[in-house]
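Deliverable D5.2: sample structural annotation.
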Amino acid sequence: MSNPQALARRLGTFDAVVIGLGSMIGAGVFAAFTPAASAAGSGLLIGLVVAAAVAFCNATSSAQLAAAYPTSGGTYIYGRERLGPWPGYLAGWGFVIGKTASAAAMAMTFAAYAAPAGWERPVAIAAVVVLAAVNYHGVTRTAGLTRILVLAVLAALAIAVAACWGGSAPAPASILGDGLLAHGWYGILQSAGLLFFAFAGYARIATMGEEVRDPRRSIPRAIGIALGITVILYAIIAVTLLAALGPDGVAGTPTPLAAAVENGTLSWAVPVVRVGAAVAALGALLALIAGLGRTTLAMARHHDLPHWLAAVHPRYRVPHRAEAALAAVICVVVAVADVRGAIGFSSFGVLIYYLVANIAAFTQPPADRRYPKALQVFGAVACVVLVATLPPLSAGVGVLMFAVGIALRAARLNR
């Protein structure tokens, strides 16, 4: 007999790739380049390469672990199985708090492009409620809507790049600005840590391991394909932004892609880019709610979060209580916080999450090994280095939130 509390396997490889793309493209293209340029200037190009290399190592670790443990929860489960309850808990806690902040940031990014002045927060909250309702009604609807959103975003990005290069020729010399190393290696590594936020969407694929058909084959393939497409896209966008605005111009605007198009002569493309940004933020928010729900479900099953959240809807086969509770928390964050700083805080939590993933993958036996251990060693060391170079405020808030999580679990164990 099937387990009535188990999730249904309804996603294929293509669906998993689309969910990963929806998470990464929406989060990074319209949000991460501004703080990265502030930290490193044109050196963000090196930071992008570093972030992509770290993401590749983390992706191979996630793929290797997901093939061995095809269930919901991602690194929370992998850490528990390979390293013990505490490392698994720290990974899950980092994912939940970091991605809750990311979800709020994506909702506010959507509202910044789509809402009338003064209505940003109500519109952002409405977006969270609507997308939580979509997730509530089944993972196939989540995948279907994400597919539409990803296609719309890719079309908008293609128009933006064409408008930047075709409307009025950017100055290729401005790509290098004062030089790739003008801000030093600390700035470059800080930009890599901030840009890593943009690559973290493949975690959503691994956290949905209980809903993917043939997960031992599909999840590793989906992670590799989604990450490869995203790296190519980000490289194109980074070069285009620097050519059109220069490093200082990218750092000086919260909407660099729209600003780059506005600098050209094809003004008709500006609304297209703004619509694309709003749609991208929606796609990221939709995938974030889905991934957060699955990790919360896994933590609740092991009593690391209230067990009430472990329920699976009898008809739609989704963690409906977890998703509803998370949507409520995201709405509260939207109501009281602002979008600045969310990227750094999210990167802190996600880098801790992948530090645990790399260590867990390193301990896997030869029968489960798909990639060299050297990749996991490099990935773990790089996660520590990038955490250390994040902006001090983001790192400080991250340390505080992890201290709160440790205290909560310790108190529960004492009871």
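Annotation notes: The chain has one domain: 13-414. The chain is about 75% helix and 0% strand.
The annotation will be released with the project's public dataset once the embargo ends.
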